[in-house]
Amino acid sequence: MRLAAVDIGSNAIRLQITNVTHYEGIANFKKLEYLRFPLRLGLDVFHTQKISDKNRLKFIKLMKAFKLLIDLYEVDDYMACATSAMRESMNGREICDEIKEDIGMKINIIDGNHEAELINMALGGSIDEKSYLHIDVGGGSTELNIYINKEKIATKSFKIGSVRALDDNIPVSVWKSMNKFITDHVTKQDNITCIGTGGNINKILELTNPRKNVRSLGIEKIKEVQAFLESYSYEDRINKLNLNPDRADVIIPATKIYLAAMSAANSKKMMVPDVGLKDGMMQVLYKKNKNKRL
């Protein structure tokens, strides 16, 4: 069985195609294709409340290319989800309707809570009886989920994201609201561990551990990486640190968001599982299709 997930974010758009097989009663997921295209829809929407004509055309071309790959791989089922940039744009629904009519590709514009639920589905074995704060930082929003003894006790989405923060125009009230949400549900006695998801925290981990054999970071190490990145200009982060242009500018504001949430929770450690929204979509697709013939 072949499944495909399209994650339409504020900073980039991703396609993953996965082959699922069964062996001795266990489902095995094998990634066949992964593409990430740096189309920053959030830069339009967070300034003008709509997707520009230029990016509209690029987005339509990209969806046609993704749909062609989905067809070429003979995918059995797919799911496409758009997050904060598309849901906040005045013309987002119109563009999605145009794509549906043109190539028959359905795009679901999901709210922050649904986005958080999908990401949570991908966490799988990362959650045990301990206390956890899950922090997912995207381009336009940050989703927080709090777990105690394997039970999710609170969840909320905030309009704080790496692209949105580039101009440093996130209202202080929003930062305070995020901080209050955390402190209202977490006490020092919880001894909480954070779980970080999103492209930026994975890049931070990579900068500290290129071999990827450790999937956790201490808060002091994250602060070190923040200071290290801030010591370079945008151009040097691209040319000397080999960061993609669409990563080189957002990674610093993203780091600040992760650190702000960790500090509010009085957490000293962050786990970084290599999962995201697309993996949650894969879980939904698998549950929907698992009884079909593989």
Automatic annotation (TrEMBL):
The lineage of its organism: Bacteria, Pseudomonadati, Bacteroidota, Cytophagia, Cytophagales. Residues 34-283 form the Ppx/GppA phosphatase N-terminal domain. Gene3D superfamilies: 3.30.420.40, Exopolyphosphatase. Domain 2 (3.30.420.150). InterPro entries: ATPase_NBD, GppA/Ppx_hydrolase, Ppx_GppA_N. This is Phosphatase. Signal peptide: none annotated. It comes from the Bacteria. It comes from Aquiflexum gelatinilyticum. GO terms for molecular function: pyrophosphatase activity. It holds the Pfam family Ppx-GppA.
